[in-house]
Write a structure and sequence with these properties.
The chain is an all-alpha fold and 327 residues long. It has 15 helices and no strands. The radius of gyration is 20 Å and the shape is globular.
Length: 327
C-alpha cells in the first residue's frame, strides 16, 4: 500500500517526502552532529566553508543539509520520470533517496559528499540527455565540468572519470571529438583552481600535495560496530537483489533504456573504486552510491508485482535506519 501510494506524483507525496526527511533528521537538532571539518588540499571549495567558519552553527548545518537533500531527491525523481527509467510516473525514488541519505546518524550534518552528490546527479541527467540526443555537445561538456566541480568538493568522486570516458563514445555522434570536449570540461574547473593557486603563490606546494594522493589509496579506517556491519550487509543485499533483478530484465527493454541502466552500473563500479580514497567509506563515501543506487532500488521496488513484498522491502529499509539511530 505504501509503495502503491508513492507511485503517484501528487503534491501530497512531495509534502510527505519532505516530512519524512525532517522526521529522520530530528536527532540532529536534539543531539547535533559535528560537521566534517577535515581540511584537505584535494577539496578546495569545501575548504572555504571550513576556513571561513561557515560550519560552526550545527542547527544551520542541519537545515542546509535537509534543503540540499530534498532538492536532490526532487531532481533525481524528475530524472527518473522524464527519462522513463521506471515504467510508470512515480515519486518513489525521491522517498528512497531521502531514506538512504538519512541512513547513518553520522551523516546528519554537512559533509563534502552532500555537495558532490548534487553534481553527480547532474552528471546522470546530462549523460541520459546525451544518450537520447547524440551529438549534444552541451551535455557532454557539462558532464566534464560537473565532475571536475564535484571533485573539488570531494576528491574521490574523480575516480569515475575513466568510467565515464568509456561511456562517452557510446552516446556520441563523433566519439573522438566528444571525448576531447568531455576532458576539456573536466579540466576547466581545475584550470581556474590552478590559476588561483598561481596568483597566491601556492601552486607548487599544492601540486606536490597532489603527487602524494595515491599514498592514501586503500588507507582508510573501517571501525564499525556489529550493528553497523549488519545494517551495511542488509543494505548491500537489497542493492544486489535489485541489481540482479534489473540485469535479468535488461534485454526485455528497448536499447536506449538498456544503455541508461548500463550507465548506472558502470558509474557504480567507478564509485566503488573511488571509495578506496575515502577517509571513511561507510559514514561518508557510501553516500556517493546513493544517487545511482536509488534509481536501481527504486526501479526494482516499483516494478514488484506483489505490493505486499514491495512494502516489506521498503519498511525493512526504514527499520534499518531507525535501528542505527535509536538502538
Amino acid at each position: 500500500m505504501i509503495v502503491r501510494f508513492f507511485k503517484n506524483t501528487y503534491p501530497v507525496q512531495i509534502v510527505l517526502v519532505f516530512m519524512t526527511l525532517v522526521a529522520l533528521w530530528i536527532p540532529a537538532f536534539f543531539n547535533p552532529v559535528s560537521p566534517n571539518l577535515h581540511y584537505s588540499h584535494y577539496q578546495p571549495i569545501y575548504n572555504l566553508l571550513v576556513k571561513y567558519s561557515l560550519l560552526n552553527n550545527t542547527i544551520l548545518n542541519s537545515v542546509v543539509a535537509i534543503i540540499l537533500i530534498f532538492l536532490q531527491a526532487l531532481l533525481i525523481n524528475r530524472i527518473v520520470n522524464s527519462h522513463n527509467l521506471i515504467s510508470k510516473t512515480t515519486f518513489l525514488p525521491a522517498l528512497i533517496y531521502v531514506l538512504l541519505m538519512s541512513f547513518h546518524p553520522a551523516g546528519l550534518t554537512i559533509h563534502p559528499t552532500l555537495f558532490a552528490n548534487l553534481f553527480l546527479i547532474l552528471i546522470l541527467q546530462n549523460l541520459f540527455s546525451a544518450n537520447d540526443e547524440p551529438g549534444n555537445l552541451q551535455s557532454v561538456i557539462s558532464i566534464g565540468v560537473y565532475l571536475g566541480a564535484a571533485s573539488l568538493f570531494y576528491f574521490p568522486v574523480l575516480l569515475i572519470f575513466p568510467f565515464i570516458l568509456f561511456l562517452v563514445p557510446s552516446v556520441s555522434a563523433k566519439p573522438l571529438k566528444e571525448i576531447f570536449i568531455y576532458i576539456a570540461g573536466l579540466f576547466l574547473p581545475y584550470y581556474f583552481y590552478a590559476f588561483t593557486l598561481f596568483m597566491q603563490n601556492r601552486f607548487r606546494f599544492t601540486a606536490n600535495e597532489y603527487t602524494k594522493i595515491f599514498h592514501d589509496f586503500l588507507n582508510f579506517s573501517l571501525n564499525l560496530s556489529a550493528k553497523e556491519y549488519i545494517m551495511l550487509g542488509l543494505l548491500v543485499i537489497i542493492f544486489l537483489i535489485a541489481l540482479t533483478r534489473t540485469l535479468a530484465s535488461l534485454f526485455e527493454i528497448v536499447i536506449a533504456m538498456r544503455r541508461k541502466i548500463v550507465f548506472l552500473i558502470v558509474i557504480s563500479i567507478g564509485i566503488f573504486f573511488g571509495l578506496s580514497l575515502a577517509a571513511d567509506p561507510f559514514k561518508e563515501g557510501l553516500m556517493l552510491f546513493f544517487p545511482v543506487s536509488v534509481i536501481i532500488i527504486g526501479k526494482f521496488i516499483a516494478e514488484i508485482r506483489n505490493s505486499k513484498l514491495a512494502d516489506v522491502i521498503l519498511l525493512t529499509l526504514v527499520t534499518m535506519i531507525l535501528i542505527l539511530k535509536f538502538m
